[in-house]
Amino acid sequence: MDLSIIILNYKSRELVKQCVKTIGLLAPKISYEIIVVDNASNDGVGAMLAERFPDVRFIASEVNSGFAAGNNLGIREAKGRYVVIMNPDITVLSGSLEEMMAFMDTNKEVGVMGPKLIHPDGSLDASCYRFPTMMIPVYRRTPLGSLPVGRRAIAEYLMEDYDHEITRDVDWLLGAVLIVRREALEKVGPLDERFFLYFEDTDWCRRFSEAGHRVVYHPVAKMVHYHERLSAQGPWFLSILRPSTRIHIASCVKYFSKWKDGKKDGKKVSA
Q1: pLDDT tens, 49-97?
Q2: CA–CA separation, 18 vs 29, rounded Å?
């Protein structure tokens, strides 16, 4: 088995249907399996898959345990020599899965790789970053981000000095789509389940780097991301009232408690 594709669902049945359907229509020229994990959505995704896509493996969690724990349920069942975690709001483009696997086959030192993500209108959806400092969440959530120092820090964090058309090593990659080498995964371990949502991808990429594996952004492979940033909608002073914001803050605290420095230059520290 070449590739195990894990799609985590939480109340996104129609997105899951479209994501799985598109992969099937593209008929990737590799051996692959699709594993859908449901985080106690109660949205009928299991019945839909059984009727429409009987070859898809389905795992139903009795509780919503979060992004990391949900994906880990799929990772533990995956049989492929590469594992892909993929959000249901991703549309796979022709040849992208083959390109991702070919790149990993050619570059044995790469532990985790992410493709270029684009919005439905074709514009860039930034998905590679430098490691955040403790001030980055503050700058991004308050008017301080509009100050010159805030703008400079955010631009550096978002890698705005990079045109995103060249394959390169990066600090971390967005967890919307990641391909991971089986041997590296067995060495590094699965996602850290202390993170319910947010920062688990930052932490995972950092752990791959700590273990000596490259983390690479590869824009030759492209996918469409129908993403809405729920944790940053509306006036900044009202954001704390949203559950997604509070979860984001909690994950932020856990990340900086774990890594201490949070430096964006990729400096290695103890976990």
Answers
A1: 999 999 999 999 999 999 999 999 999 999 999 999 999 999 999 999 9
A2: 20
**Quick one: DSSP state of residue 227?**
-
Residue 18 one-letter amino acid: Q
Phi, psi (5° rounding) for residue 8? -95, 125
Domains and CATH numbers, the chain: 3-131+164-259 (3.90.550.10)
Q: How far is CA 208 from the centre of its chain?
A: 14
Backbone angles phi, psi at 147, to 5 degrees: -75, 155
pLDDT in tens, 118-175: 999 999 999 999 999 999 988 988 889 999 999 999 999 999 999 999 999 999 999 9
Cα 45 to Cα 22, 52, 62, 72, 131: the distances in Å are 16, 10, 14, 19, 35
Other C-beta atoms closer than 10 Å to the C-beta of 169 total 12
